[in-house]
Write a structure and sequence with these properties.
By secondary structure, this protein is an alpha+beta fold. The protein has 7 helices and 17 strands.
């Protein structure tokens, strides 16, 4: 009997899987991104939203876009599946000065001001402004936002260090908002790779339990033949030992 496994950090290509998978409650977009937003249920400032993503799942963060394909994929997905803007609160809280301004203008101007103050319901994403420059970076690594999708005239917030959000009313184009604005979160997490044929997922690792008895060298070679980066089991944590022992007790009680 031989027992082989694949390293959890093996790429999707090397595992030769057809599709990535997303852990609940994250949903998979057609392009393979794992995203989740509870919309009006969980809201917060930009910094709180980033923390909420981390609480939902380890290594989760506010959504970031590195390529035009990713941007098109997620924007199209939201437009098709989450276009009910009533479920995307704007988080705009008028103060008395703004209220008094609106009372004093004409009906035509009122419509314009109302659209300005209340438009932009939608979720935070992971871009933040550098000072008051209207230049944005991705918070995870401070890299410059290259692929952009701003509403015409944006970014234009007078405050400094703003956050970026996707506006439902503008087909999920971007607007900049003060980071203390309360908005829904839009989180992402890396997809989990499916196990290759014959392997079984146990925790975060893929295992194969062989039926024949062979020597150690032959077993190691066989693991490499079964799948790229396959090798005999190496247990590095107590959790791995516990999960694998439980798996073996259930699947090979007589071996």
């Amino acid at each position: 009997m031989s027992l082989s496994h694949l390293e959890d950090n093996t790429s999707l290509d090397s595992k030769r899987t057809t599709r990535p998978t997303c852990d609940h409650p994250f949903q998979e977009t057609p392009g393979g991104k794992c995203i989740f937003s509870p919309k009006e249920i969980l809201q917060g400032s930009w910094d709180e939203a980033q923390q909420i993503c981390g609480f939902l799942k380890k290594d989760s963060r506010l959504l970031e876009f590195r390529t035009a394909d990713e941007l098109l994929d997620v924007t199209s997905y939201l437009s098709q599946n989450d276009a009910d803007c009533s479920r995307w609160p704007s988080g705009m809280r008028m103060n008395i000065d703004k209220y008094n301004v609106i009372k004093s203008v004409s009906a035509t101007s009122l419509g314009i001001l109302t659209k300005f103050y209340f438009s932009g319901g939608g979720p935070w994403i992971g871009a933040i402004e550098v000072g008051n420059t209207n230049q944005f970076i991705w918070s995870s690594d401070n890299s410059t936002v290259v692929v952009e999708n701003w509403v015409q005239g944006q970014p234009n917030s007078p405050s400094s260090g703003d956050g970026a959000m996707m506006s439902c009313e503008f087909t999920f184009e971007w607007m900049d908002k003060s980071r203390d604005t309360v908005l829904p979160v839009l989180c992402e997490v890396e997809p989990r790779a499916k196990c290759p044929a014959q392997f079984t997922a146990v925790g975060d690792t893929c295992y194969y339990l062989g039926n024949s008895s062979i020597d150690w060298n032959a077993a190691q070679d066989y693991c490499g033949i079964l799948a790229p980066n396959g090798k005999l089991v190496e247990l590095e944590t107590l959790e791995e030992i516990y999960l694998l022992t439980e798996f073996l007790n259930k699947n090979s009680p007589d071996r």
